[in-house]
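Sequence design from tokenized structure. All designs in this work follow the same two-part layout: the structure record, then the generated sequence. An example of the structure record is given first.
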């Protein structure tokens, strides 16, 4: 049986078992079953930093020259920003059409303090680590990525004398890939243990009052995948949407159950290379970068939830305020770490940008985990689409260079 089928079975069995246990037995689920899922997550977390560091160093070094690093990096960042802006816009449009907050009057018992938005200069300064080893200990993925890129570029510039260093990271990356393969064999059990307590704790009754906002987020995610990603794949003509979804399905299942883009990264890389025809050099560069800065699902969620809060409080937003949500949601998604629940924290920044009550974020708290599942799945799906797009443009660039060489 294929691993993706095993993971799907684990997910379905976890949902069924969670419904059977119910809220009255959630203590049992959290005490005896949830720790199995925690062990699975810990195994994934254990390999994330070594995987990102080694794969990005190898990816940057294997590109061959500095211009290639800049070319691929520039295209990747522009691609991520554009798709993220489209995702926020879809979320806002759906909230306007479906009006999920109308008729709701939910008491807010908790006030959540907004996280102050850092200045542009603080963001720029913060991406460069003063101590790369400390960045690894803290799991600061953006700083690790910057350090890895510098090491890879340095290897490229030094040339033959740096070959031992390049060989070390290449071998280290292969070791991490083997460890990922072992961890993935445990994925069906991990997914079962992760999903069961969530279903047992929330159950259908808890979700009914907020069913419309859940529907809006999930519909937005489906539309973004079908229209935005499907449109991109059809334009480049490299792979059909159905074949793409089948190839990325194992990673989507892990993302859906773990709610972690970074935690799903090893599986996303495996699927992109083995199922979607993306080269190791492109996937090693594009996917770790995407797990850190590309959060289409998170951005879409912020658009839906911001308008949901406005509707619940009876506040009419102007077009300018909606555009501010698009801008803030796009930029906030870049700073959202690829870990469970981080998107909820960033939601307060979006609410603050348009003057909405920060207490409104408490309305989302009860269903955030359910929304997190969908948005994380879209996040990693967008990363995979970006890797295919960049692979297509690089292949096209290589063909053009060959044509120029032949004509010359």
């Amino acid at each position: 049986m294929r691993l993706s089928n095993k993971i799907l079975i684990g997910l379905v069995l976890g949902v069924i078992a969670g419904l059977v246990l119910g809220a009255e037995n959630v203590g049992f689920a959290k005490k005896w079953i949830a720790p199995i899922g925690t062990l699975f997550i810990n195994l994934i977390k254990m390999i994330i930093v070594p995987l990102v560091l080694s794969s990005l160093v190898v990816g940057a070094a294997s590109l061959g020259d500095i211009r290639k690093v800049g070319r691929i990096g520039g295209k990747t960042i522009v691609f991520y920003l554009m798709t993220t802006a489209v995702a926020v816009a879809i979320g806002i449009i759906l909230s306007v059409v479906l009006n999920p907050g109308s008729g709701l009057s939910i008491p807010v018992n908790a006030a959540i303090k907004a996280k102050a938005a850092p200045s542009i200069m603080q963001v720029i300064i913060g991406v460069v680590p003063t101590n790369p080893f400390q960045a690894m200990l803290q799991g600061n993925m953006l700083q690790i990525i910057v350090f890895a890129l510098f090491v890879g570029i340095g290897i490229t510039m030094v040339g033959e004398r740096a070959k031992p260093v390049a060989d070390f990271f290449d071998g280290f990356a292969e070791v991490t890939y083997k460890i990922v393969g072992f961890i993935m064999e445990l994925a069906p059990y991990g997914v079962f243990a992760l999903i069961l307590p969530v279903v047992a704790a929330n159950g259908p009754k808890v979700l009914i009052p907020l069913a419309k906002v859940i529907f809006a987020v999930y519909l937005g995610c489906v539309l973004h995948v079908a229209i935005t990603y499907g449109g991109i794949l059809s334009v480049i003509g490299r792979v059909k949407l159905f074949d793409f979804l089948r190839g990325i399905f194992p990673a989507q299942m892990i993302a859906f159950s773990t709610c972690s883009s970074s935690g799903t990264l090893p599986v996303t890389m495996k699927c992109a290379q083995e199922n979607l025809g993306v080269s190791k050099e492109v996937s090693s560069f594009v996917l770790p970068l995407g797990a850190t800065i590309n959060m289409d699902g998170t951005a879409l969620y912020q658009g839906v939830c911001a308008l949901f809060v406005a509707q619940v409080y009876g506040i009419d937003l102007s077009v300018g305020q909606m555009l501010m949500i698009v801008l803030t949601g796009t930029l906030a998604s870049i700073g959202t770490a690829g870990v469970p629940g981080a998107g909820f924290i960033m939601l307060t920044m979006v609410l603050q940008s348009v003057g909405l009550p920060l207490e409104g974020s408490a309305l989302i708290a009860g269903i955030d985990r359910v929304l997190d599942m969908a948005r994380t799945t879209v996040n990693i799906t967008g990363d995979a689409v970006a890797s295919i797009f960049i692979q297509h443009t690089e292949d096209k660039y290589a063909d053009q260079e060959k044509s120029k060489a032949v004509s010359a």
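Residues 3-407 form a domain with the Proton glutamate symport protein fold (CATH 1.10.3860.10). We note this feature because it recurs in several other targets discussed in the main text.
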